[in-house]
User: Which sequence fits this backbone?
């Protein structure tokens, strides 16, 4: 019983489903929970873009793999993003 209670409390506190959409001009995060901030890092760990909203404009981004950090309610989730 204790394990089940603990598991359900973890699920209740988890960040809601996050979808990352990459278009020709921007990277957009959609979620049922408000996105506080998004940060885009190169695979070398350099911050290349950030926004206080759910969108990052892809100006001057080179093709490649990036790490997108999504911050919601003080929690961080990372996603891999492919830019053409």
Assistant:
């Amino acid at each position: 019983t204790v394990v089940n209670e603990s598991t359900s409390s973890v699920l209740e506190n988890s960040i809601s489903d996050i979808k990352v959409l990459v278009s020709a001009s921007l990277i957009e995060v959609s979620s049922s929970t408000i996105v506080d901030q998004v940060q885009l890092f190169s695979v070398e760990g350099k911050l290349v873009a950030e926004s206080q909203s759910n969108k990052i404009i892809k100006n001057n981004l080179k093709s490649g793999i990036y790490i997108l950090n999504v911050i919601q309610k003080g929690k961080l989730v990372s996603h891999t993003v492919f830019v053409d």
The longest helix spans residues 2-13.
